[in-house]
Amino acid sequence: MKTLLADDHPLMREGVRQVLSQLTPPVEIIDAHDYPSLFAQAALHADLDLALVDLNMPGFAGMQGITQFRSRFPDIPLVVLSASESTHDMRSALEAGALGFIPKAASTTVMLAALRQVLAGNLYVPASLGDNQGDPHPAPPAALTALLHSGLTARQLEVARLLAQGCANKAIAGMLVMSESTVKVHIAAIFRVFGVTNRTEAVLEIQRLMQKP
Q: How high does pLDDT run on average in the chain?
């Protein structure tokens, strides 16, 4: 398994490397120390299984680097590893396309559980940053809980969110860098999961789930 580990602090990369060594199968780690080197390494290694990325690194401010990475490399699962314990940052990273957000203060158990969830094709988001370090399977924010538990894959969730925003198939295809035919396949799967027969019913169901307390 090949993982791209991006953090501008060498000691932090070494610590995360030790955690990743506990994953199975064995992990081959590619290092990056800022956003330019992250993009360069991702372009060189098309067979990456995971990108584990520090939120704040030289090259981009705030969430811009995560958004740029997801735009350029939409097929590489990305997990944010951050010193931030801001719920706003966590939700912003998820909305930008990250499949997980792990606080750097999290325990090894939590980090491993989170990475295994993402590698299995699921999303990982802590329920409340800073409050759940001992819980390896914390719940996501309330507004997303029902949607994340709906049975959709991570890629279908991305399509579902854009669908709920009123995006046309062509726009979804452009934003997620996929063909329109692939978008249609995902939308058909969303219809099946929600038991609906048309786009309007699907959008209403997605919006209902996202607003569910």
A: 82
